[in-house]
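Pasting as-is:
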Amino acid sequence: MAAYGNMDKGLPGELVGLEVTHQIDSRLAKGAVPFGGLCFGTGDGEQVTAKGEGALLGIAARTALDTPEYVDGEAVNVCRTGKILGTAGEAVSADAEVSVNASTGKIVAKTSAAAGAKRTVTITLSGTSAAEKVVTVVVGDKVAQVATKTGTVAAADVAAALKDALAALDIPFVASVASAVVTLTAKDNGAAANDIAVTGSTTDSTQTVTVANGTSGADTILNPGWFARSTAEAANDMVIVDLG
């Protein structure tokens, strides 16, 4: 880790409260990290991520050498102490203690800490299909299909094939199967996954596909002891945050 210490002299003004010494570390982005967003340590060398993987390190700062958005593998300056502009996830009052939403990487009004949860969805098949029928599951805008054939018409066999088809999609869920039930588990904690529609259907009237929500996703909330020093009127406003 490269510790830059006080970088006030070389900054174009993105860091605020320049009478305060800023502790800034240089690390590499793991995925996209937005300016003003939270940075978490992944435990993988010096990499940081914009979601709650590992320890909360600080906020992505910007210097004259940086771009507004850090892409995967790019160097990120992480501000650990001092005052800095951060992205609000909701309205935040000035001089109020704030929490951070580790699922979205944004600053929120002070609330109780929460561990968060991953959304789950079950897809249950029942009955035996005829051959040459099609089972379809749609996750958001991604489509998984299984064509039944001799030897793959029983509910458990179709479910196993459906799990493989879902696993091949680029979706924010991990698919698993037990008997005739496929379970989709969100890859990350967060309420955002609750808005992803999941539907199922089959062209065979003797086999049914039932989709049901299991666990609802919930955001992880951290209370690092930070304070807002300006007002954010709405989500995505920039707010001055005192990191201590």
